[in-house]
């Protein structure tokens, strides 16, 4: 799936507290922008719990990005639970998904302490919203107030769901994990194994501009163009969505949470994009059936609700 065969040289950062390191041999992504021109893309990165500054490039999808970060800091790629943009905190509103703003700063959250918890399912719904990192790890994005899980102090937002009743969840998509949890009978007792993100060991970390060889990205997080990872493995630079599109995508995401207990901005974006040029719900349903989204098996009720959200957004009733 990779567009780029040549690998960047392995980057070995110095130990803290030496100054940030710039890799002068970093390979560019070389992705095509909308004008057919090659773009030299290099992103700044740090480990969320604290580390020297790294430069990341030469990737065309999320898995390759994790691989590049792992090479930069010399740890296994499967050590990364998820990444956030422009904050080292476990902020689910800042999750890296299928796109990165050209000025975004990447923070990698690594595996921390594992924990096993026994839960009695006293209600039909546990109160969890689940998403995944695009590389095989499903984790908790939201916990509903007053729910079963909200009353368990050891379960937190950002925890990776590693096992359920001894069954390995690594490699499963978020909707698969959500279905397994939903199918657990009411009244049952089950065991969940979680892995929390590594806690921060530094009081203040973030983009470092002083002492760096380049001040090219001092205004990180303000870019209007984004690098989008396509399902077919291609990465392209596109303009950011307008306010109407953003409102529609956000509402679609809420619909996914209501119907399926998952949260996936990239899936919501794909649905919004599939609706382009469609004039009724039947055309949208056919477009979804002809895409890789047909694996979800969306019900007619969901499609009708989805079309209502799209028409509301187009008419400006959501913005």
From TrEMBL:
Pfam families: GIPC1_GH1, GIPC1_GH2. Residues 116-196 form the PDZ domain. Residues 11-20 have a biased composition (Pro residues). Residues 1-37 are annotated as: Disordered. Residues 26-37 have a biased composition (Polar residues). Belongs to the GIPC family. This is PDZ domain-containing protein. It comes from Arctia plantaginis.
């Amino acid at each position: 799936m990779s567009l780029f065969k040549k690998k960047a040289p392995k980057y070995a950062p110095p130990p803290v507290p030496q100054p940030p390191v710039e890799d002068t041999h970093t390979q560019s992504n070389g992705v095509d922008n909308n004008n057919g021109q090659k773009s030299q893309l290099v992103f700044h990165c740090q480990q969320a719990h604290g580390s020297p500054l790294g430069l990341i490039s030469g990737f065309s999808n999320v898995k390759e990005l994790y691989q590049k970060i792992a090479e930069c800091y010399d740890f296994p790629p499967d050590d990364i639970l998820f990444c956030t943009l422009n904050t080292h905190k476990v902020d689910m509103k800042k999750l890296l998904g299928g796109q990165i703003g050209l000025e975004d700063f990447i923070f990698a959250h690594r595996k921390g302490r594992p924990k096993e918890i026994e839960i009695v399912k006293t209600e039909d719904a546990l109160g969890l919203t689940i998403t995944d990192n695009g590389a095989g790890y499903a984790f908790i994005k939201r916990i509903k107030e007053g729910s079963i899980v909200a009353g368990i102090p050891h379960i937190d937002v950002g925890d990776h769901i590693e096992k359920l009743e001894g069954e390995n969840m690594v490699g499963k998509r978020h909707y698969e994990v959500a279905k397994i949890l939903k199918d657990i009978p009411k009244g049952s007792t089950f065991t969940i194994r979680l892995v929390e993100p590594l806690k921060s060991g530094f009081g203040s970390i973030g983009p470092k501009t002083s002492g760096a060889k380049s001040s090219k990205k001092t205004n990180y997080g303000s870019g209007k163009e984004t690098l989008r990872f396509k399902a077919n493995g291609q990465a392209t630079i596109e303009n950011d969505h307008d306010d109407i599109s953003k409102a529609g995508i956000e509402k679609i995401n809420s619909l996914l949470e209501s119907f399926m207990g998952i949260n996936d901005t990239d899936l919501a974006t794909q649905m919004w994009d599939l609706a382009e040029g469609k004039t009724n719900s039947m055309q949208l349903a056919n477009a979804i059936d002809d895409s890789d989204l047909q694996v979800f098996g969306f019900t007619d009720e969901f499609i009708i609700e989805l079309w209502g959200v799209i028409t509301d957004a187009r008419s400006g009733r959501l913005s």
